[in-house]
Amino acid sequence: MNIVRSDDGELLKQVDAETLDYALLSGEDLQGASLAGASLIGADLHCADLTRAALNGADLSFADLTQAVLVSADLAGATMRTAEMSLADLQDANLRHADLNGADLFGANLTGADLSGAELQGSDLASAVIVETRLENARYDTRTRWPEGFDPRLPGALPTDDED
Prior knowledge:
two-stranded parallel ribbon, 4 strands, elongated, little secondary structure, single chain, 0% helix, Pectate Lyase C-like
């Protein structure tokens, strides 16, 4: 049995499972959830509201976060390899040092988000809204897709040495 609580201890969701890996949480209201360090591999969180959620250090690899609301969420150091995040709202989210290798962020709203030091190799950020987004020392490669006309070097992103 897993219990998801907000940072003030309020019960948000009870999941009848030993782990949150592959949990079905689509459309759930998980605002302010305290999931720091949690394993949510392959979890279905599409259209979930994770506003102000603490997901720092969480493993969201292969998770479906399509159209999820992650406004002001803390995803620092989270692993989100190949996560599906199309059209997700990540305004003002903390993604510092997050592993987003191969993540699909097509059309995601990254306004005011902090991706400093993030790993973006092979990520799809085409059509993403990148306004006042911090990208200092974020790493990308030739497979990383950016919005048309966007130069990731201007905000300080760094190409990796192993570009193919």
